[in-house]
Amino acid sequence: MFPHLLLSACLLLGCRQSQPVAAAPAYVPPVVTETVLPDEVTVFGNGNDGYLCYRIPAIVKAPGGTLLAFAEGRKTDCGDFGNVDIVLRTSRDQGKTWSPLSVAVDYGPNQAGNPAPVFDLTDPRYPDGRLFLVYNTGVASEGDVRNGKAIREVWFVTSTDLGKTWSAPVNITTQVNRPNKPGVNPAYTFKEDWRSYANTPGHALQLSQGRYRGRLFVAANHSAGPPQGQFRDYSAHGFYSDDHGKTWTLSPTVSYPGSNESTAAETRDGGILMNMRNQSGDVKSRLLAYSPTAGERWNDVIVSTDLPDPVCQGAMINHKTPAGQPVLLFVNPNSQTKREKLTIRVSQDDGRSWSQGKELYSGSSAYSDLVIQEDGKIGVLYERDNYQVITYVSFTL
Length: 397
What we know:
One of its GO terms (molecular function) is exo-alpha-sialidase activity. By secondary structure, the protein is mostly beta strands.
């Protein structure tokens, strides 16, 4: 389904490949057998700083190397809906130590969640980069929203000082959502009747090369119309901006009912690969869709049997090997039954095949996000131990 891609030898982490393997020598990583990596640091711990629970991690690297770790700070319980803020901690030493917690978004007694941060590095007005934080708000539970009793809106704020201060929030719901709820807003009269809505979760993306260089892209998902069995009212989509956030364009819906919680990464030709959770559960594997036009249209969805999944979020990011070879990295729980065994995998062919992977943590683990540190190490921010903590760990290929 990715006709433009060149197949290469799967040389990282035991990648499985049905095509002939090239004989050219390349970097091969050492075998590592630990199930818990050393030097892991707790970034968000339940009960700290006035929040009973922390969930839904997202992380990005600023120009200069500062890491910014976001999460939902849930004040009263670990449920998805309630008094939820988006909180932030930063690290200037490659994740070894973290700043005191600050609040990036507070929607009063209601929900602000699904943080999707991304740095815009191509706006000439901001030569040091500008941080976008795209998020959702809600005033009712997901069940009530899905049943048409409320909607979820889409907003963003920006920062030019690494999250110390933030712009006024901008509501982009009419541009990137399709709700039919004129009682909430007279402009919400879309026949598509989108109800539930969630950004990625995890970091968003800026295209770095090709025709679409500079495009900001946010992976997302929605439900449409009344609830259907096996969550078939859910589908993934995305939205993007080519003018540094002045306007936003909705991408087409991915044609797989039940596709949900999506993450995206740039392919080596400047396109986008979307990697989605299969909420319907008909197959306990990740779903992949490629867009040669960086979100303007999607090729057919592939069920990736290389990526088992227990119906949980996962994270994906671009990286390069020490030899300069572009690869994709993906992390999620390596199970079809439980949220456990957090495992990172490598693809050298833009998602056509994936390595068997390396287990990062053998115990309870769930949502995660990936970042590439200034020193080239891979960083993972993830939930573990039945959602008791969100920790950070880094390592090399």
